[in-house]
Design brief:
Elements: H1 3-13, E1 32-34, H2 46-58, H3 70-82, E2 92-95, H4 97-109, E3 115-119, H5 124-132, E4 136-140, H6 147-158, E5 162-166, H7 178-190, E6 194-198, H8 211-215, H9 220-223, E7 226-231, H10 232-236, E8 244-247, H11 250-261, H12 269-280, H13 284-308, E9 313-317, E10 320-324, H14 328-332, E11 337-340, E12 343-346, E13 348-349, E14 358-361, H15 367-374
Parallel strand pairs: 1-12, 3-4, 3-5, 5-6, 6-7
Antiparallel strand pairs: 2-8, 7-8, 9-10, 10-14, 11-12, 13-14
Helix pairs in contact: 1-5, 2-12, 3-12, 6-7
Length: 375
């Protein structure tokens, strides 16, 4: 096996032991509530289910454009436009989920011994990929109240080749403003740093900061150093469709399109047609707003119960609650399970995000399930 694959497999077994590679639940544990998986797990409304079925009946069953079907790229461009972002569909590439978009962004951006600036706490695959590609890793804390100043200083001091920003942040929910993001990107442009902006939780942000806003107003030479990544998975809890969006300048899109065609002919045409129909539907915005309201309510209820049970909560946002174990003994040997109202609740270990004294919960679950532990 090659060095890259060996490095990834080693990461699973050592640095990131416990990273969720499956959503399988221990069905033998009738007292266990699983809040570890970072996914919206709510029942989809009938109109979305019906749209998926109807659109799939009309989908082409042969190969489609490796960049993604124009209907979906146009639908996503229109979705961005409604949010105030002017992006041409030629600057959009459809991927098999945001994870593939981010992985490809790393592959085209990093050379061995390049320096990359990553958030810590941060999503585990950033570190796996950077290590496997032989990069030098530096980190910044996304929870810092002056995080934009911290990142700008790191750019000036270390002049990395790549900067990854992920706001709202997984796992902490931390956010930044559009003004702060603009400042970061401007400094990155000064030093020719490629910025990969992972925005899969953007719809849950109180401030709708986006690299897409910047891509819509800068010229092609500047946009070569900026990548915006989005996802149907996190936006709507439609992980099974596996639809992600990679947005950059046209030359970068063309490069990625050709590379992608070497190992994957195209993203499923059925999933693309279903996603286009959902993005074009006039009910979408109201549905997203309803999801955001439910998410905020669930986060608040979970925070209240954690505090009641003496779990120090540091932050909450996006679809996550970020909290500490109750004592140093628990931190030294952290468990995937915490106890709330006598129920075992499965959490994501903070160690996989680079902060072993913490754990992460994703309480965007059916109300009956949350009621079983919260009340």
């Amino acid at each position: 096996m090659n060095q890259y694959i060996d490095s990834i497999l080693t990461s699973f077994q050592t640095n990131f032991k416990g990273y969720p590679t499956s959503v399988a639940t221990d069905i033998s544990r009738t007292d266990l509530v699983d809040l570890s998986i970072g996914e919206i797990q709510l029942d989809q409304p009938n109109w979305i289910k019906e749209l998926i079925l109807t659109s799939m009946k009309e989908a082409p069953l042969g190969y489609v454009d490796s960049q993604g079907m124009k209907s979906l790229r146009s639908a996503y461009a229109s979705y961005l436009f409604k949010a105030g972002n002017s992006i041409n569909e030629e600057k959009i590439l459809i991927t098999s989920g945001a994870k593939e978009a981010l992985w490809m962004a790393f592959l085209i951006s990093l050379q061995p011994k390049d320096t990359i600036l990553l958030p810590k706490p941060g999503w585990s695959p950033y570190y796996m990929w950077a290590q496997a590609l032989g990069a030098v890793i530096r980190t910044y804390d996304p929870r810092d109240k002056n995080v934009a100043d911290v990142i700008i200083n790191e750019i000036s001091t270390y002049q990395p080749s790549v900067l990854v920003v992920n706001f709202p942040n997984n796992p902490t929910g931390a956010e930044i403003s559009q003004i702060e993001l603009n400042r970061i990107v401007n400094r990155a442009q000064d030093y020719q740093v490629k910025v990969i902006s992972d925005e899969v939780y953007r719809v849950f942000a109180s401030t709708k900061e986006s690299a897409a806003t910047i891509l819509g107003r800068i010229n092609s030479s500047q946009s070569q150093n900026l990548i915006h990544v989005d996802s149907m998975t996190k936006m709507l809890g439609l992980g099974g469709l596996r639809i992600g969006f990679f947005v950059s300048d046209e030359s970068t899109i063309d490069k990625i399109r050709n590379f992608r065609a070497s190992y994957a002919s195209c993203v499923s045409s059925l999933a693309q047609c279903a996603s286009a129909s959902i993005l074009e539907d006039e009910r979408l915005i109201n549905h997203i707003q309803a999801l955001v309201r439910v998410t905020k309510q669930n986060l608040k209820s979970t925070v209240d119960q954690l505090l009641k049970h003496q779990y120090p909560v540091e932050s909450s946002g996006a679809v996550y609650v970020w909290a500490k174990y109750q004592d140093s003994e628990a931190t030294a040997a952290p468990s995937k399970h915490i106890i709330i109202n006598g129920r075992h609740v499965k959490a994501a270990l903070g160690s996989i995000f680079g902060a072993p004294e913490y754990f992460r919960l994703c309480p965007v679950r059916p109300q009956y399930l949350l009621n079983s532990i919260l009340f």
